Amino acid sequence: MNIKEIPTPAYVIDEKKLRENLQILKDIEDKSGARILLAQKAYSAYQTYPLVAQYLAGATASGLYEARLAHEEFKAKGIESENHVYEPAFKDDEMEELCNICDHIVFNSISQLEHHRSVWEKAVSEKRLSVGLRINPEYSSDDSFEIYDPCSSGSRLGIRNQDMPQTLPEGVEGLHFHNLCEQGFEPLEETFLKVEKDFHRFFPQPRIDEDYDGYVYKALGYDEEEFDDTGESIDDLEALDGAAGSVEIPSGVDEEYTITNTGSRIKWINLGGGHHITREGYDRDGLVKLISYIKEKYGLDVYLEPGEAIALEAGYLVTTIMDVVETDRMPVLILDTSAACHMPDVLEMPYRPPLMHSEQPGEMNYTYRLSSRTCLAGDIIGDYSFEDEKKIGDRLYFEDMAIYSFVKNNTFNGMPLPDLALLHEDGQVEVLKHFGYEDFKGRL
Ligand SMILES: Cc1ncc(COP(=O)(O)O)c(C=O)c1O
Known about the structure:
This protein is α/β, with parallel strands linked by helices. It has helices spanning about 15-30, 50-55, 65-75, 90-100, 110-115, 115-125, 185-200, 210-220, 235-245, 255, 285-300, 310, 340, 345-350, 435-440; strands at about 10-15, 35-40, 60, 80-85, 105, 130-135, 160, 170-175, 270, 300-305, 315-325, 330-335, 365-370, 380-385, 395-400, 420-425, 430-435.
């Protein structure tokens, strides 16, 4: 069966594109030594986890169910892979199982850490588990939306520096932060440098003298003599601009690293998700340099846990036009899919999903509003124009539909869930899962 023949609505994962994304991430791992995890909240088509495992170090979960899914589909099937979990609060009856199936558990607060201590401490003492704390770096990128900004005012996500103790609580081995959404490299670089400065009391004794700036000069192949004592190149400031951006490097950074307390130090740092590493134009060399710097200077294991980047532009939502309704504004196409049910981010973000062979309204001959067969008036996907007039029975292909789509869908209005299919590299489409009435009823 090819993609033109599958029953609609259906999400179709593009295996070739998925593999290309994974290869880019593997290159970053190989060049930098980072360990990259799949954030399952964005993409959890477990049928493709064997492919994911060929490229990534493992997966991270937002709670017990995702952690169990990763355990079942990786480790229990003999696939070597790490299993991490972070959640703002864990239930008492979940902790034992999490400690049995996860390698890393990240707590959101000191009180959660202490509340569950008696359970996790046993797994840590048996060297089966490493425990971390999520910190709030108090850094928001310039274009962040409040709903997707874990560092917005009043955020419950992660511990602010002022609320962290002076020394690392016993048993804690790592720090985790996540503050970005669909970002390039620079906001990550700026976040890390802020974390390095604010939370340096938890970092191990530096193993090299260079601060980040000096390290980047060296990585670019410059001789230290070429720099005056402000650290700026006398000859070539342009190269520096491109490399280090406008990052503010803490002055007197060496003195700051003087060890002032005797507590234990972290062994790993997790830089979270929100990095659009597989997007064209992402500064991947910059990312490799930053990770190499963290590893070389502090000897830390560095984790990244992107979700979107794994399956970016690696899927479609195929739909059929069921009716064309004239209105006082423009004709509306009634589709067998729905924004509210099948692509909730369209209404939540909100955004206009890319659609194959279409343009902005008015740019091509025929403009339509694309909507759904639900009764929700606002279940509108967006306005699009096309070369040709659209007819009942025509198919449309929404793009970039592998992420935050089938993991978030619902059966509001009794809408059938789209099937989940895989477009293999030879062009054949395999239906991975068909959904029907029982899936609707089973949730009620
Ligand atoms: C803790 C954490 N890690 C990773 C991710 C994945 O982010 P993204 O899919 O934007 O890369 C998220 C997304 O919300 C998150 O909350």
